[in-house]
Amino acid sequence: IDMCDELPRPRFLYSSPVTGRTGGGSSGAPVIIDGGLIVGQLYGVCGENPDEPCDPNYAVDGAFAVSYERLKSFIDPDPPPLRRRATSTH
User: Fold this and answer.
1) Which of 6, 15, 21, 78 is 20 to 30 A from residue 43's alpha carbon, by CA?
2) pTM summary value
3) Rg of the chain (C-alpha set)
């Protein structure tokens, strides 16, 4: 994907939508694959003519594996406290 060099892998993921398109204002939406796993967040598009939704552009997503460290406090802001195992004195 030569025209998308400024958005390198593995920090970014690429897909070619089969149907539909991404509308403005949806950046940051989760990218979910089969099984309900979040693998990225919508970033935008790149291609020969990214302003034309009917042209064969690529959807560009931020890789969740890269973003996770920055997002984890929002995803799980208060992790549950560690539980101590009961010990037997017998």
Assistant:
1) 78
2) 0.66
3) 19
